[in-house]
């Protein structure tokens, strides 16, 4: 984890528009880092709203910082995304559209506090359905697949979200001894999160332990109580309810998608073919739960990182389960793979979640209920 000195960058308003706040940025940084500190005060002020503490993650998509709210001291995560390519713009907008479309919060889904669009030294708070010219330039870039704004201008999107201090699900689980209590808690939280997303017409499309973050809390008695938060919505799809009954929870399963995307070890067979629905999320969650229960891992070739995930062994090679099922739809899955025995209800549910035929998988709402029943009635998974 890279350590940085505290960065305090001020942001001063110049004027307001009806559809958002326009601001001029004052950069004040001890190391001259070109980092935006977002301040949304409805007054002229040199006082920043957030103070960036340190960088906690970096990738090709963007940089994530730990920050604190100056007024309250609350910890937040600030993600900075450079919009220098159509691919980055599309990923950023997909995340914004998904998180901003949610009208209520869920304890197991990352919460977007606010989003700011920056162009050079100008910044504007983003809102869903905005008619801002800056926002529309990004939308046009995403739709056309080519940069439609002045390439000499630096565009960034800043996401202010929940800060999760426990790392991702891989790091959390693989650094601790297996625990039935933790497994039970995690599967219930994941089931609840996915039902919430599908109820809000959001298909995640990249569910994997790397994209599930942990917030470390404690009970009143002082015992650890980790909370999962599904994150990274860059590949997500918000399904239109046009022509469907928006009150019907299962309608998300009638939204057919054709863009094959995701991470290969968690992709359903139909995703490889490019014709799938929200049931692909059920398959991915089946991979995660099975791997969590039995501690099935593999080593990523590129990063050499140990990851939770179930797969098929073919000689000396490991093959993603979805790809293997596509080649052999009648393949019998060996569940349990490592444990001597497994709770019958859990075993049956995992088999159904990993069915080749999406119609044979439970939807997210049935899945949530069945996970609750398993947790309540069959707490000992080893019998």
How far do the termini sit from each other?
Answer: 41 Å
CATH superfamily of the largest domain: Transferase(Phosphotransferase) domain 1
The chain-level structural class is alpha+beta
What CATH architecture label of the largest domain applies? Orthogonal Bundle
- Strand fraction equals 15-25%
- Helices and strands, in order, run as EEEEEHEEHEHHEEEEHHEEEEHHH
Low-confidence runs of at least 5 consecutive residues: 1-45
Number of helices: 9
Q: What average pLDDT do the residues reach?
A: 84
Enzyme class: transferase
Binding site for ATP: 80
Pfam family, one: Pkinase
Family: Belongs to the protein kinase superfamily. Ser/Thr protein kinase family. GCN2 subfamily.
Task: Describe how the helices and strands are arranged.
Layout: E1 10-17, E2 20-26, E3 50-58, E4 63-69, E5 75-82, H1 86-101, E6 112-119, E7 122-125, H2 133-144, E8 155-162, H3 169-174, H4 180-199, E9 202-203, E10 212-218, E11 224-230, E12 237-238, H5 269-273, H6 279-294, E13 297-299, E14 306-308, E15 311-314, E16 317-320, H7 321-327, H8 344-353, H9 364-377
Antiparallel strand pairs: 1-2, 2-7, 3-4, 4-5, 5-8, 6-7, 6-8, 9-12, 10-11, 13-14, 15-16
Would you give an account of this structure?
The chain has 383 residues and is an alpha+beta fold. The chain folds into two domains: 10-162, 2-Layer Sandwich (Phosphorylase Kinase, domain 1); 169-377, Transferase(Phosphotransferase), domain 1. It has nine helices and 16 strands. The strands form five sheets. An eight-stranded antiparallel β-sheet has the order 1-2-7-6-8-5-4-3, with helices on one face. The protein has a two-stranded antiparallel sheet with strand order 9-12. Strand 3 and strand 4 (63-69) form a beta hairpin. The protein is globular. The model is unreliable at 1-45 (pLDDT under 50). The chain crosses the membrane at residues 7-25.
